[in-house]
Amino acid sequence: MPLTINDTSRRREAAPRMAGLLLFLAALMLGTAAPALAVPPSSLVIEDTAGVLDRNTLVPAVESIDFHEPTTVAVYTYNGRAEDNLNEEVLRFARSEHPEWISADGQKWADGLFIFALDPVGRHVGTYMGEDRKVSLEQRSDIQDATKELFRDAQWTDGTIAGIRRAAQLINQPWYQSAAFLITAWVTGGIAALGAGAWLIVRTVTRSASRKEIERGDRSYASVSMDLDVTELNAGTIPESSRYGSQVLEKHRTFLNRYTAATDLSNRVHALSQRSLGRRGNLKITREYADAATELDALDDVIADTNAFLNRAATWPAAWDRQLAPFRSDLSGLEQLLTKHHGQGDSATAAALRSFRDHSLRDIEGWTAELAEERITPETALDRLNEARSRLAGLLENHAATVIAGFAKNEREAKLMREQMEAAQDGLGRSQRRTYEPSILGTVYPSYHFFNVAAFSSGLNTGLNSVNSARGGGGSTTTGYGSSGGSFSGSGSSSSF
Fold it and tell me: What's the CA angle centered on 485, arms 479 and 489, to 5 degrees?
């Protein structure tokens, strides 16, 4: 027999009551459980042989972490290689330097002990513990995963603290604090209420996201509307004889049509009811509106800068600074790129990039002085900036080849890394969306014309992760202690990052 409207309504009303009853029962169970202890580490041993940890930050942070049982925390770092077995190295170090870390029979880690190990060069993190402190393999992976985003950014101290903090949460965790219990309790209640309430959460999140997109679009749309007459005046005095001016004017010819389209989108999104903002389809429309308005807002600024700079108006120095900003950003970001892991910072191509950076910083000062003294025209200055940025793109491409040759073990891996680099250069990386650079050169040329430092870094990270995943080393777990471990079977594992 089909449900009537009243039947459906009664079921929706009953679902939250059932969920509440189940959660109440869970609360009663919690009330009968013994309270968990919260104690700082009983002792802390730091063996930073890699020299990467800040003790002034690490020690007080770890001493403030509460464990469920008194636990000795040992931190060990060393500089190894990607092919090393961190488990084997930790055991070797313990046997030679800290035999008290090993049980009396030599087969396990000592009771009451937790060891956190890091190899910043070989890119491995490991966790080891006594039999009375051991957790499951999945939980060891959970501890290690808590560190990896920080470690990938070379934040060795913060990553170590994050790993120890997560270990403190999981080691000897009371049953009623376990993820399995909490998930069971909440999912059981959630299933009962799913038909009546789960969709409310999705709608609420979507509605909030839609409002934020509308706010983003409104800010830009208001700015464009307020400056509309000024934008038309600026466009009217841009010299068409200039190669750069004529290209910006080409973009302006579609400006009013795009403004009309943005107006239509604005009217559509503001006509949506609060309820309809919770629909996924309408979220897409609000994003389309926000993106259109934001790009228009950037373009009217470029039109103003083009007029001011090419005509040497009083505000030309500020307009020129905005043209230099993307190039300066690339130059300032080079050192961080070259010193990152696998950045091949000691290579000849890295030296060429550093030399180019130093010369370019001097060139920028020279161009600006020549502009001020009217010894070069604004168009000549833009030509030089275009040539310099194109030169940087070529040097980055050369360095990309160096990085790929240094990391890839075969042509298949090299091809995979090249594909990721090329995707980043084309602006088709993770987001699959090209971004608009609000500058004269960014308006005249497509976004992929300049291979910049941000695209290089994105392509490198994606390429390294892709190759590591293909190798099976992108976070894969190692549990054995190698040939020198003998019959040692202490609880522990390591993984790469």
Answer: 55
**Read out DSSP for 98-145?**
-GGGB-TTSSSBPTTEEEEEEETTTTEEEEEE-TTT---HHHHHHHHH
Contact 126, 139 (CB under 8 A): no
Whole-angstrom distance, CA of residue 414 vs CA of residue 422: 12
Q: CA 155 to CA 150: how far, in whole Å?
A: 5
Considering only residues 258 and 9, tell me which one the structure prediction assigns the higher pLDDT.
258
| Cα-based torsion angle of the residue sequence 65, 68, 69, 74 in order, rounded to the nearest 10 degrees | -40
pTM: 0.59
Higher pLDDT, 187 or 249: 249
Mean pLDDT of the 353-368 span: 97
- Is residue 66 classed as helix, strand or coil in its secondary structure? coil
* CA gap 145, 73 in Å, rounded: 19
Task: Say which amino acid occupies 160.
Answer: T
Q: pLDDT (tens digit, 9 = 90+) per residue, 421-440?
A: 888 877 654 444 456 789 99
| 261: pLDDT strictly greater than 80 | yes
Residue 132 near residue 71 (C-beta atoms within 8 A): no
pLDDT digits (tens, 9 = 90+) for 283-329: 999 999 999 999 999 999 999 999 999 999 999 999 999 999 999 99
3-state secondary structure of 378: helix
In the structure, what pLDDT confidence band is assigned to residue 189 with cuts at 50, 70 and 90? low
Sheet holding 43-48, edge to edge: 43-48, 72-77, 113-119, 124-129, 491-496, 477-478
Helix (H, G, I), strand (E, B) or coil at 67: strand
**Exposed, middle or buried, 300 (CB in 10 Å: 0-12/13-18/19+)?**
buried
Rg of the chain, C-alpha, whole Å: 30
Tokens coding 360: 């370019």
